[in-house]
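Students often ask why we bother encoding 3D structure as a string. The short answer is that it lets us treat folding as translation between two languages. Here is a chain of 294 residues written in the first language.
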Amino acid sequence: MRTRTRHRALVAVLAASAVTALVPATAAPAAAAPAACRGPLSGDLATIYPGQRLEPGTRLVDKVSTTELVMQPDGNLVLYALGKPGGYELPLWNSGTYGNPGAYATMQDDGNFVIYRQGGSPQTGGGIWHTATYGAGTGSVKASLLGGEFLVEGRSNLHWSTRSSERQAWFCSEYATAAEGWWTGNWAQSATVWLVLQQDNNLVMYRKSDGKAIWYSGTYGGNNRVTLQMAPKDRGDLTLVEEGSSTVRWRTGTANNDGAYALLQDDGNFVVYKKDGGPGKGGGLWATGTYNKI
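And here it is in the second language, the structure alphabet:
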């Protein structure tokens, strides 16, 4: 198995800054068999406006998905999914700018979000990473964290994203938008595990206690991104399909079960159930078998 995450450097205590910081909420409620499929998460934005900075050691916190964006002292900007308070934090995305101690990030008036070396600035240079969202157009300019995704809205309707939206802990084959599925970078969580469709196309389950990978699909690599979906046409089969084609890279083999759904459980198991099945009721069609690994 291959994963492309880096362990974080120790993050300093939150320094005073002009950036809006939200306090993480309590742990997500226990997952249960869905009565109805829901849409995306919603809530308050944690936002960086033009002229504001993320100084070394500061963070932007999303209380909806319990994620945080950290400008680490080593110069790397990292997005983490938070586990239990004081516990392991799972890296979901990073800028790859480690090795630049003292670097900071800023939202510029021109719409670009830039990481500068220590002492650098828009006037003196020293930029080491940016979102390429600058332009001459009008409109709202900001960077925000919500639902596990860090999004930059620049000039001329240019946008940039970490593609790391949190999704619900279940797939329903009868949901109207089920065919859209997850794209690479999406993830979900239960009380004990994270399930991440990584940028390398591998679907990986990590336990929250220590961040160890306890299951994976083995689909890393390839020239095309994949989508995780349980489309109505597949009649209960959960699949990883290459975007822009019909090539299936992985599947649960649970087709011919109309109304089936997949559930990421608090016991650490990821299970496909029959329409009327569920925890405590039986009807499991496929599972990762990870209930004893948390």
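Translate back mentally: The first strand starts at residue 46 and ends at 48. Keep this in mind for the problem set.
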